[in-house]
């Protein structure tokens, strides 16, 4: 609720502090004293546009600050937490307009955007003025009214949980279908590429090894000839190297005793002879392995040709890279099959959730339809009591083609001010006074079921008097037992119901200017103010007595 409104340098206000209380706060005062100026200043706090025309003097900025108590509220504190704006104690909202026209907004001394201010304001204050339908013409608000009176909170929660799951499945299914469409476009080509690689069935490093083998086979004849020549020279020629070394070693053996170095050298020579003999034997054995095999060469050449073509096709240079491409293609092809399986499973889940959601939505529809007649009768009865005996509200509930967040119903309030039999959507009804009283009737019905912010009614009593005004006052009083209500009125029957009566007056200044003042009235002052509303500037004894009776009636 609003605790205090402070206004500086706004219109004809130099500085003003207005304190509000819980319950019904009534604002009265003479015409032109500044009641509407108070509402205009408050609208700045609620995010209204502003320019330099609101400044009383242009040598300093205009500042409007409002403090709110959030006890018992849920929506506004949650918003502050979500926006990281919550502070302990009362909520402070401030708006500043500089002489340059620049506007700044603050929530708990933190600068915020005008959009943030508006979002918070909706949770704090419902400023209902003439010719301002506000939420009344909005389908979502109308649905909330029906749901509140029908007690659909638990049903809506159950439905929304299922609907949320359904939306999630919808989203996942759409994504998978898009992926499958993309896979399908490439599926045939990917399958062709995979089959081509799979048919050749390369092993790791196979092409590199085949290339080495081909080089060997291509030079096998020359290698064999070189091996044979070397073997012959070492052990089989006319003068084999191994045989020659053996003979030399034998000659040197006779002279080893003559010089110590001869023994060492002879030993080394024997080792060389033995090593060369081993080499000759191994070379002879190796020679048999080098036999030109044209059939094998043709087989290798053919396989290498196919491999090199795939190297070029896939822009790679190794067998390992080809195998990696084959594995990736396999993964894509497997992905198509897996995606199809997932799509089939999600479609089954979607069908089940759709049926569950439709069933829950049907239960909501049934509960809403059951509330239509009681709602119409209750509102129409209250409309008659507030001076609109011929007015009728009609609640239409039609089925939407698709499920939505709140079921499958379109709720629309139709209004007929004169019982003409031609009701029209409320948003098309132009009379501000009628709409204000209609809103009062509706909100008084749902106040216990829906968390409503502070309600402000700006002269909704226009065009009514007597018993109708009295009934408006009674409804406001009932409503104020649940939430804070602030009302500007000219009707004594409404003012008499106040828990807190504020009087707006003009204060002539030394420089001949006019300043707006506000004071809270004590009981005797209230009697006098209401008597003035009944009988003029100088109320008679009868008017004073009537005013006293009105107040004591409560």
UniProtKB/TrEMBL annotation:
<dbReference type="InterPro" id="IPR027417">
    <property type="entry name" value="P-loop_NTPase"/>
</dbReference>
<dbReference type="InterPro" id="IPR001611">
    <property type="entry name" value="Leu-rich_rpt"/>
</dbReference>
<dbReference type="GO" id="GO:0005524">
    <property type="term" value="F:ATP binding"/>
</dbReference>
<dbReference type="InterPro" id="IPR004604">
    <property type="entry name" value="DNA_recomb/repair_RecN"/>
</dbReference>
<dbReference type="GO" id="GO:0043590">
    <property type="term" value="C:bacterial nucleoid"/>
</dbReference>
<dbReference type="GO" id="GO:0006281">
    <property type="term" value="P:DNA repair"/>
</dbReference>
<comment type="function">
    <text>May be involved in recombinational repair of damaged DNA.</text>
</comment>
<dbReference type="GO" id="GO:0009432">
    <property type="term" value="P:SOS response"/>
</dbReference>
<comment type="similarity">
    <text>Belongs to the RecN family.</text>
</comment>
<protein>
    <recommendedName>
        <fullName>DNA repair protein RecN</fullName>
    </recommendedName>
</protein>
<keyword id="KW-0175">Coiled coil</keyword>
<feature type="coiled-coil region">
    <location>
        <begin position="329"/>
        <end position="363"/>
    </location>
</feature>
<keyword id="KW-0234">DNA repair</keyword>
<keyword id="KW-0227">DNA damage</keyword>
<dbReference type="GO" id="GO:0006310">
    <property type="term" value="P:DNA recombination"/>
</dbReference>
<feature type="domain" description="RecF/RecN/SMC N-terminal">
    <location>
        <begin position="1"/>
        <end position="509"/>
    </location>
</feature>
<keyword id="KW-0547">Nucleotide-binding</keyword>
<feature type="coiled-coil region">
    <location>
        <begin position="262"/>
        <end position="289"/>
    </location>
</feature>
<feature type="coiled-coil region">
    <location>
        <begin position="193"/>
        <end position="220"/>
    </location>
</feature>
<dbReference type="InterPro" id="IPR003395">
    <property type="entry name" value="RecF/RecN/SMC_N"/>
</dbReference>
<keyword id="KW-0067">ATP-binding</keyword>
<dbReference type="Pfam" id="PF02463">
    <property type="entry name" value="SMC_N"/>
</dbReference>
